[in-house]
Design goal:
By secondary structure, the chain is mostly helical. It has one domain: Growth Hormone, Chain: A (Up-down Bundle), CATH 1.20.1250. The protein is built from 25 helices and 2 strands. Strands 1-2 form a two-stranded antiparallel sheet. Helix 1 packs across helix 7. The radius of gyration is 24 Å and the shape is globular. Keywords: Membrane, Transmembrane, Transmembrane helix, Transport.
Length: 502
C-alpha cells in the first residue's frame, strides 16, 4: 500500500498508541463474548438445573434472551448518551451497570433475580457494543479501520472461548459454585475498563506521529476533523427521526440495521448459546463431553478470527461476507443432512462417523463466521455514517442486532426440541438469503475516506463539499498550527529554522 496521500502528504507509521487504545477499548467485547459463552455451559450443569427447578425449553430461552432485551435498550440509549458525555465516559458508565448486573446474577437465589441481573448486564453490553466499534473507527486511519474494529470481534470470540473452558472446568465442582464462579469471574475484566482543540491536536499527534504536532498528516487529519465538527454543530441530528429524513442517511441506517440483523439470522448465536445441546443431539452425550466440544468450538472461533485481522482491509467487506455465507450455509446443509439420515438414538446402534461429521460441520460453521460475518457485522455500521449521524445510526443498528438476537435466543431451543435436524436446514436457508441480500444491495466500503463515503451513498451537497474542501487543500506548507503553549508554527518556518541551525 502506498504511503502517499492525495495532497502530497506522507502517511506516517501508525503509532503503537493507536493499537493500544483499540485493544484496551475492546475489553467490552471480551465481556460480551464471555457472557454469550458462559450461559451455554451453565444451562447443562446439574447443580444449576436442580437449583432453578429444571426450566423447560421456553423458560431456558427466556433466561438466555432477556439479557438481549437489556442490550436492545442499552443500544438505543447509547447513541444520545455518547453524544452528550463522549464515547469514553459512556463506556465507563456501561462498566458500572455491568458490575451491578453481574453481582445480581452471581448472588441470585431465584429465577427473578437471575433474569433481572441478566437484563441490567445486557444494558451495559448494548452500550459497549455501540460505543466500542465507533470509538475504534474514530481512532483509526481509514487504511486500518477494518483491522481496528476486527479487534472487537476478536475480543468477543476470546471471551466466548474463555467462558467455554471455565464452564468445562467448573463442571467438576460438586456444588452451586459450579455455576456461581463462572458468573462471578466476569467482574474481574470490567474493573480495568469531548475536549479542547489543543488537546485534540496533541492526541492525534501521539496516535499517528509520535507526538509531532507539525507532521503534515496529523495537521491534515486535524483540519478535516475541525471542519467536520464545525459543519456538524450546525447540522447535527438531534433526534432519531432526523436520521431518516435524509435519503442518503436513511439508506445507510437501513443497511446498518440490515447487516446487524442478518448477523443474527445466519445462526451463529443459536450455535453459541446452545452448543452443548447441539453437540448432545449429535451423539456427544453427558455434560462433560458436550462442554469439551463446546470449548474446542471456542478455540476455533479465536483462531479463525486472526485471518480477518490480517486480511480484511485487503479483501474488502463484500467478498469476505459472501465467502463466509458459502461456508456457513454449506456446513449447515451437510450437518442437517447427516443428522436427518443418521439421527442419534440413545442406546441404539448409531453411526459414529456421521455424528462426528455433524460436529465437524459446526466447527466449520463457527470458523466461517469468525472470518467473515463476525468482524464485518461490526465494521460496516461503524464506518458508513457521517459523524453527525454516527452515534444514532450505529445505535439503531446495535439495537437491531440485539432485538434479532433475542428472537433467535427464544426460538432456537424450541426448534431444536421440536424439529431437530430441521433447525440446520432453516439456518442453511437464512445464509443463502442473507448472502443474496449482501450481493445485491451492499456496496464495498473498504478504505474509503469521509468524502468518498458521502459520494458512494449519494449525499453530495454541503456535507461532501465541506469534506472535499479540506481534502483538496495542501497541508505541506504555510498552515499555522496552534500548540498547547499558544505558539503558531508552519512547516515552511520550521524548515527555515532548521536550515539556520545547520
Amino acid at each position: 500500500m502506498s504511503n502517499e496521500l492525495e495532497a502530497g502528504v506522507h502517511r506516517p507509521k501508525t503509532s503503537w498508541r493507536v493499537y493500544f487504545a483499540v485493544i484496551f477499548s475492546s475489553i467490552g467485547g471480551l465481556l460480551f463474548g464471555y457472557d454469550q459463552g458462559v450461559m451455554s455451559g451453565i444451562l447443562v450443569m446439574e447443580h444449576w438445573v436442580e437449583y432453578f427447578h429444571n426450566p423447560n425449553p421456553v423458560w431456558r430461552g427466556f433466561i438466555v434472551s432477556i439479557y438481549l432485551l437489556g442490550a436492545f435498550v442499552g443500544g438505543l440509549a447509547a447513541g444520545p448518551t455518547s453524544e452528550k458525555i463522549g464515547r469514553k465516559r459512556s463506556i465507563m458508565g456501561a462498566t458500572i451497570i455491568f458490575w451491578f448486573g453481574t453481582s445480581m446474577q452471581t448472588g441470585a437465589t431465584n429465577v427473578d433475580l437471575l433474569m433481572a441481573g441478566r437484563f441490567f448486564q445486557g444494558i451495559s453490553i448494548g452500550m459497549y457494543s455501540m460505543n466500542v466499534p465507533v470509538y475504534q473507527s474514530e481512532l483509526s486511519p481509514a487504511h486500518l479501520r477494518g483491522r481496528a474494529i476486527t479487534f472487537q470481534q476478536f475480543s468477543i470470540v476470546t471471551g466466548i472461548m474463555i467462558a467455554f473452558w471455565i464452564g468445562y472446568g467448573c463442571a467438576y465442582i460438586q456444588s452451586d459454585a459450579s455455576w456461581r464462579v463462572p458468573l462471578g469471574i466476569q467482574l474481574a475484566p470490567s474493573v480495568v475498563l469531548k475536549g479542547r482543540t489543543d488537546e485534540a491536536l496533541e492526541t492525534l499527534a501521539k496516535l499517528h506521529a509520535n507526538g509531532d504536532v507539525n507532521d503534515p498528516y496529523v495537521r491534515k487529519e486535524f483540519d478535516e476533523i475541525m471542519e467536520q465538527i464545525s459543519f456538524e454543530e450546525k447540522n447535527a441530528m438531534k433526534t432519531y427521526r432526523e436520521v431518516f429524513r435524509s435519503p442518503s442517511t436513511r439508506k445507510r441506517v437501513f443497511l446498518a440495521m440490515g447487516i446487524q440483523g442478518m448477523q443474527q439470522w445466519i445462526g451463529i448465536n443459536a450455535v453459541l448459546y446452545y452448543a452443548p445441546f447441539i453437540f448432545q443431539s449429535a451423539g456427544m452425550t453427558g455434560t462433560l463431553p458436550s462442554l469439551l466440544a463446546t470449548g474446542v468450538n471456542g478455540v476455533v472461533c479465536v483462531i479463525f478470527t486472526i485471518p480477518a485481522l490480517l486480511f480484511i482491509d485487503k479483501l474488502g467487506r463484500r467478498k469476505t461476507i459472501l465467502s463466509g455465507s458459502i461456508g456457513m450455509g454449506t456446513s449447515m446443509l451437510i450437518a442437517g443432512s447427516l443428522l436427518r439420515a443418521y439421527p442419534y438414538v440413545e442406546g441404539g446402534n448409531n453411526n459414529t462417523q456421521a455424528q462426528y461429521g455433524a460436529v465437524a460441520m459446526m466447527f466449520i460453521f463457527s470458523a466461517s463466521f469468525s472470518m467473515s460475518w463476525g468482524p464485518c457485522g461490526w465494521i460496516y455500521p461503524a464506518e458508513i455514517f457521517p459523524n453527525r449521524a454516527r452515534a444514532k445510526g450505529t445505535s439503531l443498528a446495535t439495537a437491531t442486532n440485539y432485538l434479532m438476537n433475542f428472537v433467535i435466543g427464544e426460538i432456537t431451543p424450541v426448534m431444536l426440541d421440536s424439529i431437530s435436524y430441521g433447525t440446520y436446514f432453516f439456518f442453511f436457508a437464512t445464509n443463502v438469503v442473507c448472502g443474496l441480500i449482501i450481493y445485491s444491495f451492499y456496496p464495498e466500503t473498504k478504505g474509503l475516506t469521509l468524502e468518498e463515503m458521502e459520494i458512494l451513498f449519494g449525499e453530495g451537497g454541503a456535507e461532501a463539499e465541506a469534506i472535499k474542501a479540506v481534502a483538496d487543500r495542501s497541508y505541506v506548507s504555510n498552515v499555522p498550527v496552534t500548540t498547547t503553549a499558544g505558539q503558531q508554527t508552519s512547516s515552511s518556518s520550521t524548515e527555515e529554522k532548521e536550515k539556520t541551525e545547520v
